[in-house]
Amino acid sequence: LVERLLGGDAAALARLLSHVERGDALGEAAVDRLYADTGRAHIVGITGPPGAGKSTLTNALIGAFRARDRRVGVVAIDPSSPIAGGAALGDRIRMGEWHADPGVFVRSMAARGHPGGLAPAAADAIHLLDAAGFDPILIETVGVGQGEIAVAGASHTVIVVQGPGFGDGVQALKAGLLEIADVLAVNKADQPGAAEVARLLRDELGAFHVGGRTPPVLLVSAIAGDGVEQLAGEIGAHLAHLRDTGGLAERQRQIAGADVLARVDAVLRGRLGGQSGWGGTADELLREVAVRTTSPAAAAAVLLGRLAQ
Ligand SMILES: Nc1nc2c(ncn2[C@@H]2O[C@H](COP(=O)(O)OP(=O)(O)OP(=O)(O)O)[C@@H](O)[C@H]2O)c(=O)[nH]1
Ligand SMILES: [Mg+2]
Q: DSSP code of 102?
């Protein structure tokens, strides 16, 4: 499967994606073997509130990058919540027009984030697409809860999508989205209120990013295609900026750190949940912490000591 994926076989890619999604040993072994062939793709996170138009904009960006002869990979991550249960189907419909194009590969997956990073399955999906030669790789995730932090930890460039009717820039700041934005896209520019949101965001960004690079704020209409070409240009410009300033190596290290830590976190949680046979005593320790007979730091030291054995 690894040889076939490197040779450009989409069926092999799809099969390996299913393995990494299940988190099985074959998927892990495949990514281990492919990892040296990754690190070439520009990874672009696309986040923002539900309904801002992330999927529609992703679809429009696919077109802009195809026009530049780029092979585009897309990973659409659903939060594993029942409310967003229909999102995967919606993404498939919105990006379905690329089904027959071998230069586009779209995958929706349910993958809950881990502190600081994407779930290992989502990170592995990016590695597989990267090894298969897709560049850029667009990661769509809903910007609520930890979703935006996770995608920021896994991306070279973060696009925050807003729209009219999502409140003013102050609320966006509170949500933590402005801190992670490399480019802001105010979508639905065909509707009233978008220009006002863009103005508020520019005002805030001016005060916020003193000295460094101020993220551009673009008005786009994903449906009409307006501003999409400029957005694709800004995505490329941000990568060039990272290269010019040495920021790219720094981002690569951050991405690597989040990827490794998310895996350590997943294993530790699995063990604390009792899967390795000592969960029973972990539960007992947690009860002691809850009733104040053991301190949190002492309990953590006991658990880490057992892991070290
Ligand atoms: N008027 C207008 N509507 C748009 C535009 N872009 C998207 N929409 C509509 O907004 C709705 C939500 O679009 P999606 O692309 O599904 O938004 P999303 O951010 O991916 O949504 P979730 O993945 O569910 O969080 C759909 O009805 C789109 O047709 C736009 O540029 N203008
Ligand atoms: Mg979507």
A: T
Ligand 1: centre distance to CA 283 (Å): 44
Bridge partner list, 162: 186
Token reading at 62? 């696919």
Which tokens is 86 given? Answer: 């229909």
Which tokens in the block code for residue 220? Answer: 């786009």
Task: Quickly list H helices, 190-227.
Answer: 194-208
The model's pTM is 0.90
* CB contact at 8 A, 29 and 164: no
Q: Residues with beta carbon < 5 A to ion ligand 2?
A: 54-55
Residue 88 Cβ < 6 Å to ligand 1: no
Instruction: List residues bridging with 68 in a β-sheet.
Output: none
Q: Which of 149, 111, 117, 132 is nearest to 16 (CA)?
A: 132
- Verify whether ligand 1 is closer than 6 Å to residue 221 (CB atom): yes
What is the Å distance from ligand 1's center to 26 Cα? Answer: 37
With a 6 Å cutoff on the Cβ, whether 56 touches ligand 1 is yes
Q: One digit per residue, pLDDT tens: the chain, 309 residues?
A: 999 999 999 999 999 999 999 889 999 999 999 999 999 999 999 998 888 899 999 999 999 999 999 999 999 887 544 444 444 555 555 667 788 899 999 998 876 656 556 888 999 999 999 999 999 999 998 776 666 678 888 999 999 999 887 665 555 555 577 788 999 999 999 999 899 889 888 888 777 665 678 899 999 999 999 999 999 999 999 999 999 999 999 999 999 999 998 888 877 777 766 544 455 667 788 889 999 999 999 998 988 888 777
What ranges make up the beta strands (E) of the chain?
43-48, 72-78, 104-110, 137-142, 157-162, 183-186, 217-219
Smallest CA separation from ligand 1 atom 1, residue: 188
- Starting from the CA of residue 48, give the closest ligand: 1
Nearest to 198 by CA among 225, 173, 220: 220
